[in-house]
Amino acid sequence: MSRYRGNVLALMEQVLSGLPRFERALDFGSGDGWFARHVTERGWAREVVPVDVQRREQVLVEPVLYDGRTLPFGDRAFPFTYSIDVVHHAPDPEAALREVLRCTGEYFLLKDHTYRSKAGYWTLCALDELGNRRFGVPSRYQYQHEWSWMPVMAREGFVLQSFIHPAECEKGPLRVFNPFQFVGLWKRV
């Protein structure tokens, strides 16, 4: 387990504490399936369906592949959905959010990035390239500016339940990047 992923998992545990175990969850942008595996191992969901636009060479959990526009699931098909560091990779992040929220029955957890200045934006661009190029994941540089995605969740009928910002995804010298990180949990009303 990478230190970063372990720290994100601990943050997820903070925002999910007190919620019942979900029967099904959707891992939106599952990558190699690491989080899907750990969500089931932690008992947060009995079954996790990982979905992505491409299959990585090595996966821990096989993803359902989709076209990047329309998820192959019905409305509110999953009581819990989550997305870890993925929405900013979508060609249209707001459309991606609307689509995953369409499939969300009750709770949505989002871990992603935000910036407030040009320097912050360029920092995220560099970090994204360093973290994703080796996996063949395109960096589209579509990060949330301040909290511009929040109204999308509200329009789709979700209210914020828990929020961590800055999120302590990094320790030691790399903690200077934590102000770019957030974790939030929204509930459908």
Number of domains: 1
Please state the structural category: alpha/beta
Q: What is the overall pLDDT average?
A: 95
CATH superfamily membership: Vaccinia Virus protein VP39
Number of helices: 5
- Tell me the fraction of residues in β-strands, as a range: 25-35%
**How would you characterize the largest beta sheet?**
8 strands, mixed
Protein architecture, described:
It contains 5 helices and 8 strands; from the N terminus they run H-E-H-E-E-E-H-E-H-E-H-E-E. The relative contact order is 0.17. The protein has 189 residues and is α/β, with parallel strands linked by helices. It has a single domain (3-188), classed as Rossmann fold, CATH 3.40.50. Strands 1, 2, 3, 4, 5, 6, 7 and 8 form an 8-stranded mixed beta sheet that branches. Helix 4 links the parallel strand 5 (104-115) and strand 6. The longest helix is centred in the middle third of the chain and has 15 residues, at 118-132. The N and C termini lie far apart (35 Å).
What's this model, at a glance?
The chain is of the alpha/beta class and 189 residues long. 28% of the residues lie in helices and 28% in strands.
